[in-house]
Design a protein that fits this description.
single chain, alpha/beta, Oxidized Rhodanese, domain 1, five-stranded parallel beta sheet
Length: 281
């Protein structure tokens, strides 16, 4: 089963009851915008999942801007959408080069549900190809969803602190280059990156058209890390890092972990930071 599906593939199966579509559109600058866009128009039969309300837990003093969601709460939401654990195919999409759809893709796999894919090109390509949209809300057929968490998918703060400087471990920062270098920080109170991290900006995974770069490009992108025993990926708050985790999987590297708190968690504590080019020990 592919981690990506084309608009043509989904359009041909748009009424398949064994497929649940999740609209993950969201704006960090306007948290209500994605839902408003969904209500105006969305893919037929698509349900809406909100990054803040569904795919994250409430923000605390530490832990980052988008802590992982409560498994029980999200599982109940998925079941209400008609997702049966281990059976139903879930297809996620957004309009931001997979930034938020990839979060759901990763979460479902973390929950033990592998039948999930992202719509290649997302809302952008779906509209460009003239496929139908609607403002009709879908009628759910409740399913059953009991997650089986894969702890190996996650690296917590203490793990990152202890292991990031080991020769066998690579720490990947997924943010834009200028944020990694500490030249610009539009969201968090401190600029820079975790010492020793390497920068692989998440937007490199896709083309300007929102389509994912081909498999060979993904393999080439990660060729320097093929021999790493462990890869830990982070971003600002555990969201766009999931795009890099998808890219790694497309490249045949499926042992990478997410540090969910990311830079927003790290910089909220009295921990070392680095600016400019990284200095790997």
């Amino acid at each position: 089963m592919s981690d990506l599906v084309s608009p043509q593939w989904l359009a041909d199966r748009i009424d398949d009851r064994q497929i649940v579509i999740a609209d993950c559109r969201f704006s960090l600058a306007d948290p209500e915008l994605g839902h408003q866009q969904y209500l105006a128009n969305h893919l037929p039969n698509a349900f809406y999942l909100n990054l803040d309300g569904d795919l994250s837990s409430p923000v605390g003093k530490v832990g980052g801007r988008h802590p992982l969601p409560d498994p029980q709460k999200l599982s109940e939401k998925l079941a209400a959408m008609g997702v049966n654990f281990g059976e139903t195919m879930v297809v996620a999409y957004d309009d931001t080069r997979m930034a938020f759809a990839a979060r759901l893709w990763w979460l479902l796999r973390y929950f033990g549900h592998d039948r999930v894919a992202i719509l290649d090109g997302g809302w952008t390509q779906w509209q460009a190809l003239g496929y139908p949209v609607t403002n009709t809300l879908p009628q759910p057929q409740p399913g059953q969803f009991s997650p089986q968490l894969r702890s190996q998918f996650v690296a917590d703060l203490e793990t990152v602190k202890k292991r990031k400087d080991l020769d066998s471990v690579v720490l990947v920062d997924s943010r834009d280059r200028d944020r990694f270098l500490g030249e610009r920080e539009p969201i968090d109170p401190v600029a820079g990156h975790i010492p020793g991290a390497l920068n692989y900006p998440w937007k490199e995974v896709t083309q300007e058209s929102s389509l994912v770069c081909n498999e060979e490009a993904q393999k080439q992108r990660w060729s320097d890390l093929e021999d790493a025993e462990e890869i830990v990926v982070y971003c600002g708050s555990g969201v766009t890092a999931c795009v890099n985790l998808l890219s790694l999987k497309l490249a045949g590297i499926d042992n990478a972990k997410l540090y969910p708190g990311g830079w927003s968690d790290w910089c909220s504590r009295d921990l070392p930071i680095e600016t400019g080019e990284t200095t790997k020990p």
